[in-house]
TrEMBL record:
InterPro entries: SpoVT-AbrB_sf. This is Antitoxin.
Length: 87
């Protein structure tokens, strides 16, 4: 099981903040990406680790994912000027 920490939120100016232990691996001034999920949970990582996080997400797909491609998908012509085309 990954390490976990318990903490409390606190008010900092007009924001809500979370204090993280040094052992979490963040340092002062790190740019952090925070992603809220539909279930109320959050994920976060250092911005500099974004490529590694993306790679780990791709590793989460099964070995056979899209092995047969996407299949035939009909797509309407697009008018890149923003005006809908008559069919």
């Amino acid at each position: 099981m990954p390490r976990q920490w318990k903490t409390k939120t606190f008010k900092s100016g007009n924001s809500v903040a979370v204090r993280l232990p040094k052992s979490a691996g963040l340092t002062e001034g790190d740019d952090v990406i925070l992603v809220p999920h539909d279930d109320g949970s959050f994920s976060f990582w250092r911005e500099q680790d974004g490529a590694r996080v993306l790679d780990s997400l791709f590793g989460a797909f099964s070995a056979g994912f899209m092995a047969e491609g996407r299949g035939d998908i009909e797509q309407a012509e697009r008018d890149w000027d923003g005006q809908p085309r008559a069919a």
